[in-house]
Amino acid sequence: MRVLIADDERPARSFLASLLRSFEDVELVAEAANGAEALELIRKHKPDLALLDLQMPELDGLSVVRLLRGRRPPLVAFVTAFDEYAVRAFEVNAVDYLLKPVSAARLREALSRAQERLERADLRVEALRQARLAAGEYEKALPPERLERLPVRQQDRILLLPVTQIASIRAEGELLHVTTARNERHTVACRLKDLERRLDPARFVRLGRGDLANVDMIAKVNVMPGGTYVVVLQNGQEVAVSRIQSRILRDRLLKL
After folding, report:
1. What domains can you pick out in the chain, each with its CATH number?
2. Beta strand 49-53 with 27-32: parallel, antiparallel or unpaired?
3. pTM
4. What is the pLDDT of residues 186-196, one digit of tens each?
5. Which residues are bridge partners to 124 per DSSP?
6. In the chain, where does DSSP find H-type helix?
């Protein structure tokens, strides 16, 4: 079996290569240090199996699978540190994966499984389809990357506003009005629920249907008749809290 490996970490790549060389029925045809190189070497050497590191800079293992072309694409097995989202996506779609550090026994199992698929053309095509499905499901399952800086357009420049400096965010239709700790005001074209998904929930709290506040910016909470609150921020801004969110705020911030 002709095998290619791709991993941006030299020690991991060398270790996997040494394991492969210990098998008499395996030929290691190429080693790639990144995804772009992997694609080029796959086109050149036409391996039977590609062992792709899931996380590589610029072009990761998932992107390599999406870009594979040709009549006889290689079978693919992903190599990854433990990642619950990846493992779930791979298992659901019957895609082989190897957890780092890879053991010789587990690698042998993956090679044997690949050999069975190589002997049937229909299984080979199906394996690539399953790998692409797994890639899509994995990326959908990933939690959104947390936003650390909010890009704010100011005429002919874009300000990168650290989210730690944001005191509050108020929605008005498709626009968001952002107020900073220094009472500077900015407007961003974005939906509140989309931005909220990108913000750290431990840092920002919803005060009403259209209001978010930075927890670290809350100076005090005034109790209002009927069990609701008005939050006073360190910049002097006052934000009324809805009845439903008042209950949540009480449980989250106002109990010892």
Report:
1. 2-141 (3.40.50.2300), 149-253 (2.40.50.1020)
2. unpaired
3. 0.61
4. 999 888 888 88
5. none
6. 10-21, 35-45, 61-67, 84-92, 104-118, 121-141, 192-198, 243-253
